[in-house]
Amino acid sequence: MAPRREVPPSTDPAQPSAARIYDYLLGGKDNYETDRAAAEKVLAVAPDQRRLARANRAFAIRAVRLLAEAGVRQFIDLGTGFPSSPSVHEAARETSPSARVVYVDYDPIVQSHNTALLASDDLVASVRADIREPATILDHPDLAPLIDFGQPVGVLIVAVLHLISDAEDPAGIVRQFTDRLSSGSYLVLSQFSSDSEAEAMDRLHAVAAGTPVETYFRPRDQILGFFEGFDLVEPGLTDVEGWRQDGPAAPTRLKIAGGVGRRP
Ligand SMILES: C[S@@+](CC[C@H](N)C(=O)[O-])C[C@H]1O[C@@H](n2cnc3c(N)ncnc32)[C@H](O)[C@@H]1O
Prior knowledge:
- This protein is α/β, with parallel strands linked by helices.
- It has helices at residues 18-25, 33-45, 49-69, 88-93, 108-117, 134-138, 170-178, 198-208, 220-225; strands at 74-78, 100-105, 124-128, 154-158, 186-193, 231-232, 238-239, 255-262.
C-alpha cells in the first residue's frame, strides 16, 4: 500500500496543491507562489498545459450538458476544484433549472470557496471528503437530501483519478461509487493518459514525484476498465479536446483521455 497523502493537503501554502495549480493554469486567482512555481515547472515540460487544462474543463461541461439533455437531474462532482464558470450546476440548469449537485473535494480551501460560491441554494451542497473513502461520501448526511439513487445520477470523476496511485485501487474506488447507480445513470471520467509523449511524461514525473501532485499516467485499456458496467457514448474514450468537437484538435504533449459511459 502506498503512503496516503495527508488530508488536508493544501492548508500549507509551502506545499503546492492540485486544485491551486489547476486554478493557475485556468487563469484563476486562487493560488499561491508555490503553486505558480510548480505550475511553471509543468509548463516548462509541456507549454500547452494551459490549453489542456481548459480543454479538460470544457470536456466536463460538454458532458454535463449532454447528460442534462438526456434527462439527468442530479449530479455528484468528485474532485470539484475551485469554482469556475460555468460550474456543473450552471451547465445542468441550462436544461433543467432544478438540477441538483453535490460537489466533493478534500481540499479545505476549495471546499470553503465552493460552499461560499457554488452551494448557493438548497439544491446544491459542497462536501469536504476524500474520494478514496467512497462510503463516507455516499453516506454523507448532505448527500441524501439531494441524490436519489433510484433515479439516474451523473457521477463526474474528472481529472482527479490520476492523483490516485494503483496501490490505492482507483478501479475499486470508481466501482464503489458506480455500484449504487441505477439504469440511465452516467459516469463522466477523464485522466492523464500514457499516450502522452514519453519525454514529457518522464520530465513531469521528475518534477512531481513525491509531491502532493504526483501524477499517474495510465494506458488506454486501464482507463477503459474504469467504465466497466457502462456503455460508452459516442465517440468513446478520446483525447478530451476532441470529445464531441468538430474538426481536429491541435495535439498536446501531455494527453488527458475522457469519456462518458451510460449504465444500461
Ligand atoms: C485537477 S483538479 C480537477 C477539477 C475538476 N474536476 C475539473 O476537471 O475541472 C483536481 C481536484 O481534485 C481534488 N482531489 C485530489 N485528490 C482528491 C481526493 N483524494 N479526494 C477528493 N478530492 C481530491 C483536488 O483538490 C482538486 O481540486
